[in-house]
Amino acid sequence: MPATQARSSSLALVTLVAATGGFLFGYDTAVINGANQYLKAHFHLDAIQEGMAGASAILGCIPGAMCAGFLSDRFGRRKVLFLCAILYAVSGLLSAIPRTFTEFLVARFISGLGIGASSMICPIYIAELAPAAKRGRLGSLFQLGIVVGIFLTLFINARIQGLGDEAWNAANGWRWMLGAEVAPAALLLGLLFFVPESPRWLLGVGRDDEARRILESVDGPKHAEQEIAAVRAVLGEEEGRFSELFHARFRRPLIVAALVMAFSQFSGINAIMYYSTKIFATAGVGVKDSFMSSVIVGLVNVVFTFVAIAFVDKVGRRALLLIGLAVQVAALATVGAMFHAGYNGLPLLLAILAFIGAFAMAMGPISWILCSEIFPTKVRGRAMSVATFVIWTSCYIVAQTFPMLNDNPAIGPAMTFWVYGACSLASLVFVAAMVPETKGRTLEEIEASWGRR
């Protein structure tokens, strides 16, 4: 096999692993969307318990993300991804066979541990292997994996829902929706036997020869020597302690990472991903049409992620964020206005799709890309843990509170979406004021730039 072809194959396999990790993240995120109303009927849940069902996996995401940072810095990115694949498979099985609501919550918590850990490690893994000129596009493939997972899950949910009546779905349909996760988890586990460890992590623990071979397989000997020299230069300056994250030199990237992650969730994206079927039903759409509307939401999510892949390394991270956030604000304001005026059907669906498209081309993928780029090698795992802790805490708040806000006559869906729109407006102002451009720069150049600010 020619050298160039071998390099492309090596990088493609690594990217496939990150995308599969993203797929499982997306599957687990969206599967509750179709299952929640049948869980509610099966276990006789009230609004608070319905929120717990939607948010139970997120409670696992928080410790999963926090522990994965230390574990990946200590044992390597690849080993922790093996653990994630096992957690996904175990959760998929246990989520399909619970006898009580408590058992279901435990099974979803296990899934959350896998989601939290993989959501932290996959972006780092691809960022540490990809050449600088391709890092944005390849990093976007993690988000593509997420949105494909969401779309296929919504599609699978709709097909399973159509196999029986309401009684069958309440008894068995949701079990098949949740249990199907075992298949992609097994795929990820198999792929991990054929991919290398992160070369930057290997350099950090003194395994230079292994790192050189991997870097040469990705982009040739010249690239390998340049990367090794750059990484060694910054490794000599770093202590690699968690406390270093709060040093004045890295305070700004920590603030940028934390707020970008928080704003991405307080836009309300996962209120739609978890509850779109409920949202459309609230607007007066029938159950079957609500499921199909959710599938369309997932499809738009996929299509506009390709916009990010096409332009993130050309237009840049910052420009896409500003454009996407401006559209988000307008779309969410429109959704709130339509609920307030009592509109439903196609106009409401189009307004929600505009928001989904804007998020998918900007805030969705770029928040993960930025956070994987802006920290130094020795503490990148710990730093990403902080960022993912913030995103999953924010996600939990949204998932837990949406049913209560939506069902509250004093608040309702109109005010809820206006709040999400206000958060998106605050995000737009923050990005304009604080977020730098990182396209086309090596990880070491980005790190050095913070010290000059």
Biggest sheet overview: none
CATH superfamily assignment? MFS general substrate transporter like domains
**What structural class do the secondary elements suggest?**
mainly alpha
The CATH C-level name is: Mainly Alpha
Q: Could you list some keywords that capture this structure?
A:
mainly alpha, single chain, Growth Hormone, Chain: A
Account of the 3D structure:
This protein has 453 residues and is an all-alpha fold. It has 18 helices and no strands. The chain has helices spanning 3-43, 47-75, 77-95, 101-129, 135-161, 166-179, 182-191, 199-204, 208-235, 248-266, 269-282, 287-311, 317-341, 346-361, 363-373, 380-407, 412-434, 443-452. The chain is globular.
Lay out the secondary structure:
Blueprint: H1 3-43, H2 47-75, H3 77-95, H4 101-129, H5 135-161, H6 166-179, H7 182-191, H8 199-204, H9 208-235, H10 248-266, H11 269-282, H12 287-311, H13 317-341, H14 346-361, H15 363-373, H16 380-407, H17 412-434, H18 443-452
